[in-house]
Amino acid sequence: MNTLNQNGGSVVPAWIVALVLVTVLTAVTAAVAVLNPLEARSQSFTPVGNVNEQVITLEGFETEIRLAQLRFGSLGQNPDDIDKTALLTRIVLETLILQSAEEAGVRVGGDDLSGQIDIILVEFNVTRPELVERLQDLSLTWEEFENSVIQFLTIRQFVDEELLSTIPPNQQEVYLRVWAADRILSSDISFDPQFLDSIGASASHPVLGGNP
Questions:
Q1: pLDDT digits (tens, 9 = 90+) for 49-88
Q2: CA neighbours within 13 Å on the CB side: how many for 176?
Q3: Is 137 helix (H, G, I), strand (E, B) or coil?
Q4: 14-198: what CATH class?
């Protein structure tokens, strides 16, 4: 695992920086790719990992894949070009952020959700019925989509109000790097080695492989 110095002169790998920035600083299109990994599609689900005792399920991961396919397709990209290792790593980072948001008492209101969905419809140039049809084509429900948007808004609100509200703009990127790396290093993260192997991830992955 990498370490940090006290002045923010981190030795955090570039891929962590990129994932953090994608997770918390991207525009509206990222909203459809964020889903609570605990959200299984039925009462029967298969645990494949833990992030600070929060269970990551196989069903939740598969739903994440479908949401990523929705985003890729809406952006004109090949839905099959999904890096599952990167996706799972992003799930871990988002879970850590959402855990911190919960601890800070961050809540998203219904008006915020409705407004964000309207923005997404405009950004994707689709009507609500058309989006519902796209979701159904990928075996996704409207509730799962709404949940993904809520999680996106929660992350954005936490970052804006709790992490960066007092940080000068020219220091925010470094601050986010250090914050994310510190959360990873201080968290208990573990995954089933067979599951990691099934998605092409290494058991020695610096995030997914657990802390030393």
A1: 999 989 999 999 999 999 888 887 776 777 678 899 999 9
A2: 27
A3: helix
A4: mainly alpha
